[in-house]
Design goal:
The chain has 100 residues and is an all-alpha fold. The chain is built from four helices and no strands.
């Protein structure tokens, strides 16, 4: 099976050149951290849920999304909780409210 998921660094603005290849990734990471500043745990989980849904919709290709889910899951504890935590449930509910 040919992989569809891009796992090599792929951050940047098309047409821009960077002194260091890692700089755009660092810029994104800083923006991600900044977006969570002053949020409580529930708000932070809701932000993550909305971001995941927005980016998944932007990607659209189910092959890529399935590969990303598998890659993100790799290394996670084998015995994941069968039911969502209260924070995860609140985040999912909050995310659902923001989507059209």
């Amino acid at each position: 099976m040919t992989p569809h998921l891009q796992t090599q660094p792929n951050f940047g603005i098309p047409g821009e050149h960077y002194l260091n290849a890692y700089s755009p990734g660092d810029d994104f990471y800083q923006a991600l951290i900044d977006s969570h500043r002053n949020l409580d745990e529930t708000e932070s989980h809701a932000l993550n849920a909305r971001l995941i849904l927005l980016l998944a919709n932007h990607i659209g290709d189910l092959r890529v999304l399935r590969e990303a889910l598998a890659a993100a899951r790799h290394g996670a504890p084998a015995a994941a909780p069968a039911t969502p935590t209260a924070a995860a449930a609140a985040a999912s509910a909050a995310a659902a409210e923001t989507l059209p």
